[in-house]
Amino acid sequence: MYHHVKKLMYTVRVGEADPKFGRMLLEQFGGANGELAAAMQYSIQGLNCEDPARKDLLMDIGTEELSHLEVIGSLARLHLKPTKASREAADADPLVAICGGGGVGLFNSQGNPWTADYLKITGELDVDLRSNIAAEARAKIVYERLIDFTNDSGTKDALQFLMTREITHMKAFMLALQSMGKDPLKIGEIPPTPGLVDQFFNDSTGEGDAGKEFRGPWNEGNGFQFVEAPAFKELRDRSGSR
Amino acid sequence: MYHHVKKLMYTVRVGEADPKFGRMLLEQFGGANGELAAAMQYSIQGLNCEDPARKDLLMDIGTEELSHLEVIGSLARLHLKPTKASREAADADPLVAICGGGGVGLFNSQGNPWTADYLKITGELDVDLRSNIAAEARAKIVYERLIDFTNDSGTKDALQFLMTREITHMKAFMLALQSMGKDPLKIGEIPPTPGLVDQFFNDSTGEGDAGKEFRGPWNEGNGFQFVEAPAFKELRDRSGSR
Amino acid sequence: MYHHVKKLMYTVRVGEADPKFGRMLLEQFGGANGELAAAMQYSIQGLNCEDPARKDLLMDIGTEELSHLEVIGSLARLHLKPTKASREAADADPLVAICGGGGVGLFNSQGNPWTADYLKITGELDVDLRSNIAAEARAKIVYERLIDFTNDSGTKDALQFLMTREITHMKAFMLALQSMGKDPLKIGEIPPTPGLVDQFFNDSTGEGDAGKEFRGPWNEGNGFQFVEAPAFKELRDRSGSR
Amino acid sequence: MYHHVKKLMYTVRVGEADPKFGRMLLEQFGGANGELAAAMQYSIQGLNCEDPARKDLLMDIGTEELSHLEVIGSLARLHLKPTKASREAADADPLVAICGGGGVGLFNSQGNPWTADYLKITGELDVDLRSNIAAEARAKIVYERLIDFTNDSGTKDALQFLMTREITHMKAFMLALQSMGKDPLKIGEIPPTPGLVDQFFNDSTGEGDAGKEFRGPWNEGNGFQFVEAPAFKELRDRSGSR
Amino acid sequence: MYHHVKKLMYTVRVGEADPKFGRMLLEQFGGANGELAAAMQYSIQGLNCEDPARKDLLMDIGTEELSHLEVIGSLARLHLKPTKASREAADADPLVAICGGGGVGLFNSQGNPWTADYLKITGELDVDLRSNIAAEARAKIVYERLIDFTNDSGTKDALQFLMTREITHMKAFMLALQSMGKDPLKIGEIPPTPGLVDQFFNDSTGEGDAGKEFRGPWNEGNGFQFVEAPAFKELRDRSGSR
Amino acid sequence: MYHHVKKLMYTVRVGEADPKFGRMLLEQFGGANGELAAAMQYSIQGLNCEDPARKDLLMDIGTEELSHLEVIGSLARLHLKPTKASREAADADPLVAICGGGGVGLFNSQGNPWTADYLKITGELDVDLRSNIAAEARAKIVYERLIDFTNDSGTKDALQFLMTREITHMKAFMLALQSMGKDPLKIGEIPPTPGLVDQFFNDSTGEGDAGKEFRGPWNEGNGFQFVEAPAFKELRDRSGSR
Predict the structure, then answer these.
(1) Measured between CB atoms, which of B165, B188, B230 is closest to A141?
(2) Which of chain D's ends, N or C, has fewer CB atoms near its CB within 10 Å?
């Protein structure tokens, strides 16, 4: 059961409204890595979760994200409000202006509607925690980019608050995953095929405008067997036959 | 530049076609955690990547996923082929039957078209690697579930091959992330706000049909300050005023 | 700011799980007229609303819908859980089974992802209230249809609870609209063109498999001027010229 | 059966093309509250409708909306045509310019494709009429906003025509609903649970940046029982226990 | 301007309703190659078209497709109607049953909403005609598959009518294209690069489960220069260096 | 099986980055007529194809389109890169800037995610070849429009290369279709209804702002029987009765 209190988790103040920046802020309201995506991903994982302790964690953070949704929405609203009355402002986000009357909707910076396709929910707890760690990392970098694109101090403060919380959540999800005590490469129950699992396929080769080849810990040592491109042998044979 | 050779990375054999299972297989062809999603996510991250070594890694694995797409598509095709001629089979996947003539398309198990909204591409390398680790974990568990739902040995073999490769990729992405030598909680450049970053907000409380409260390493110790629900004080005050 | 308590607004009990019915229930979890749509529509209207009294109303009901989302999700989860282990159950909803591991996601009964395109938010208060009245009416009839398709008494009880609340909300929105004291046909500020506004265009004529013509209060009396099909004169002239 | 005559329902004239305004006009061509949405919503409701008299009404108005689609499309076309040859104009709507060659497509002001998710069709006549009343109110306010953002007199005239017709339709749908003689709070056949239906849940409380609490006819009098937030008791108890 | 007459272009009769077949029929109502897609594609091409003669053609056929939409919708409605009252029928299409009350909506056979992404409209007349020829061919084969999956004679008759008309339209579009007198390989104004345009790149090579290589008029003779895979040389060199 | 070599099929050079033009280029990366759409359409048709010779053709060209995807993506990347650091550049494509960190994603010029709804795959070879011919014609005209909107010579060169290849492919698909030796109006197996197939329905009539009527080879001669609008007779009778 949910309850709402009429205080924002972080009070938003805006000096001068910047509708084009308001449009950018919508990424974190109705966008792919935004607060609704976070709230829904964690809360629904929580609803499905059968580990009672980590279910509590998922609900704690899922609920906090709803409060963030309200903060970022209120902030975007302040920046987008001029789109109602000013034609110039309206050109920055015609969807908000014409359909929303200057109010926010669940769209991203270019007007795409929020979709549940943004969510990653598998019902496998350790997998879901990995998806959440990645989601928090994405949200952090998006907030950082937003901070870099505004000079308004009130706006920066609110974004700094929200950005900070992503790191808190990232840490909590990491610790929750560690505390499960699972081998990080053991997912589910069926083991991978021995031997095959150690082969690294070198499927992109050569040197040119699109880069060159490198060896690193991700394809040498660490038990890896380096396999020249599987498609290669056939090509080589063909080449020889000409 | 890409080249195609007319050999599957893993030869597919199917005993008896099972159209309803073929429909399930489409999750890994045109679904959210499927092979096209993997191929596109890694290859486009690679295209954008400015770290030449890990760019090579992204292209290696991105290309391998294209070969997987071909394998899973060929497998699904064998299971779905009867939908062309048999009305009963067609009822299992009318979209494949009526629109596709029994051939596969980029749809998931319930006919939703593949969408780039499935992808997580931020242009921040360590963040992208985290998204990839999570993506591989999801793909692994999906393959495991598919294996659990078929008795056909040829099908199981192909799925086991594909499932195994996800673990290989997961390991490679993990090692690539580690080799960057970054503090796992340092994302981007702007530091989180000290103090605030250590607060764990207990936003879901009580006990009931939807669980109960727990403490764990994700909200105690590890530098955490446990904060009773931020909304709580206001509610408590209100409660006191009655 | 939001707070979550670990008690459902209505405790869900299910006798025997019915996965195909669980699939139907998803309409009210992640479907077009479901609880997330209601929660988001009212809460975001509330966020944008500048009439403080009705803003409170929108937040009250928007928040209640979040609690409903949790109830219907928990109910659907109970019916869909067998899809994790049983192949026959999985065939009822392969997306839930394969991707969700038997857990619910924000999809409708046929696996379409929830989208903000379901929402109607204009930032014009009386218009939004009309959209809400219609939304509640739709949700009510959907719950009724669900009740008609199950014999499970615990399921019926939960659905009856949720259905009842839609009527409560419908009444509240109607009274909120009435209390604004606006002429129901006055929307916004610009008046319609006199004369033209009274013309009823008879654009579908004749009699056949697709119906026949009727007069009623919606096209006669009430100030209406009945205009035979605007396209008609041209056709008649053409007919005459042959 | 449909017939088309080569006369617009309202002749469109444009002084100077304004591509950015043309983009805004697309909201009423291929957008959520636009003419195709209206045409399809009413016509398909009509196709399904078993009340022959109101079926006629739905077809009359559904058909008129097709004529409006042609008018608004022709108007948008005139404003967007320069995007074919002028790079500056093309920047206003690159999708129209590059893909459409300066011609209109079924997109909204920010290039999202029209989707049937915009439609509200339930097959329950009184419910559908409520959805239609709300749809007309939305379309009216959108036209008003468009009128406010242009100074071109020919454009204003065409929009005034289209806006006026929305009020005509709104009135017709209201009268059609009234003439059914149903209790406005009786939807479908299953009655709501007595008592519960009269409870108003105060789920958003307190005072702060996000508003304060109000009583009004929507939550007091009118048979309402005001229930302090259902989640509250648990929280209060918890609070007391500290 | 449009006018509707209450006679179907082809009267639909159904012996015994077959809800699963009704679901298949939705492909031609709200699906990718269906009648709405045809109606919208041609009518909007017509709206944008500046060749007055072929504009007339596009409007003629675009309007006929609206009449087909009505026929196929009426037919699907008859097959899907039992979903309103019968749980077993409802399981065949829960979206139609629960949301639509047994009435049709703009969805395809697996419940995906119609989207303007199905349309191909470029504003280049000869290109659009090619898209239309292809669209008619697709619609024809879809109708044929539907006919193959039903034994109901009334249904077969209506589908035969609709299928026949696709051939009529295909022929008309072909003749309209021919009558433009353009070189079929001349699209737009900018000529392709001589030499390069004649090279056929053999980018898929070898022999295996995924086929083998063939020469045919599409890559030999006809001015073609056969180029062994562009990526090949690099691979061959690499191979040589081992 | 696929292999990637680190050389672009065409080396991209950009003088001065033009972010707004970069946004336009995304049409051919993640847009409806772009290179991913081509690659997927042909490759999946190839995967399903049972004619071994034309299967080879489909794979040859499908693979080449993957190489084109890499070229256009690399080109768009160069134009969009400034969106990472410059606020002004970021305003040109906020989705690329904020979510992508200046890197490309599978979006079109207005930020819509790539969707498999763009694809036309029927599993009927001659029909698929027609869809491909039309697809190549669309891609050609889109490239031409892009060339017309840039002055950067390196950009023009790359686009000219890609544009040229579309004509090559168009020719190959045309020859592959011709070589099947099918009557162009014979699609599938079920013949159209004689007589009915020759009737041209004149469903759009009169003269006005929306054009006038024309006769041409598409509705006279060529075996056509010209039928005045089917809906007409009813209207005429009605007209006569006044």
Answers:
(1) B188
(2) C
The identity of residue F20, as a single letter, is K
Radius of gyration of chain F (CA): 23
* Strand locations in C119-183 (E): none
- What band does F235 get if pLDDT is binned at 50, 70 and 90? low
pLDDT band of residue A186 (cuts 50, 70, 90) is very high
Burial of E240 (C-beta count, 10 Å sphere; 0-12/13-18/19+): exposed
CA-based nearest distance F221→chain C, Å: 21
**Which of F85, F98, F89 shows the shortest CA–CA distance to F17?**
F89
Closest CA to F6 of A201, B41, E204, B56: B56
Q: What pLDDT does E217 receive?
A: 97
CA distance B17 to B81: 8
Chain B interface, mutation test: which of C1, C2, C3, most B Cβ atoms within 10 Å? Answer: C3
- Tell me if B99 and E23 make a contact (CB, 8 A cut-off): no
3-state secondary structure of F21: helix
Instruction: Identify the band that residue C242 occupies on the pLDDT scale cut at 50, 70 and 90.
Output: very low
Helices E35-48 and E19-30, axial angle in degrees (round to 10): 10
pLDDT at position F73 is 98
Question: Which residue in the set E1, E93, E111 is minimally distant from C231, CB to CB?
Answer: E1
pLDDT score at E233: 72
**In the Cβ-directed half-sphere of A167, how many Cα atoms lie within 13 Å?**
26
**In Å, how far is E158's CA from the nearest CA of chain F?**
11
Could you tell me how far CA E130 lies from the centroid of its own chain? Answer: 12
Cα–Cα distances (Å) from D20 to C16, D26, D83, D86, in that order, read: 58, 10, 10, 13
**Model pLDDT for residues D143-156, shown as the tens digit of each residue:** 999 999 999 999 99
User: Span B50-55, mean pLDDT?
Assistant: 98
Residue E32 above 90 pLDDT? yes
Return d(Cα A28, Cα D209) in angstroms, integer.
Answer: 20
Which residues of chain E lie closer than 8 angstroms to F239, CB-CB? none
CB proximity list for B151: less than 8 A, separation 6 or greater? none
pLDDT at E238: 56
Min Cα–Cα distance to chain B from D206, Å: 7
Closest CA to A90 of A162, A23, A173, A5: A23
**Does A41 have pLDDT greater than 70?**
yes
How confident is the prediction for chain C on average, in pLDDT?
A: 95
Residue F37 neighbours by CB distance under 10 Å: 25
State the angle between helix axes of C52-80 and A35-48 in degrees (0 to 180), rounded to the nearest 10: 40
pLDDT at E78: 98
pLDDT (tens digit per residue) in D75-119: 999 999 999 999 999 999 999 999 999 999 999 999 999 999 999
Nearest CA in chain D to B205: D235
pTM of the model: 0.97
pLDDT band at E235; cut points 50, 70, 90: low
Give me the CATH topology for the region E19-178. Ferritin (1.20.1260)
**Sequence spans of domains, chain E:** 19-178, 196-240
Name residue B110's amino acid: Q
Confidence class for position B230, pLDDT limits 50, 70, 90:
confident
Query: Could you tell me which residues come within 8 angstroms of residue B189 by beta carbon, excluding any fewer than 6 positions away?
Result: A144
With beta carbons under 8 A apart, name residues in chain A contacting D232: 3
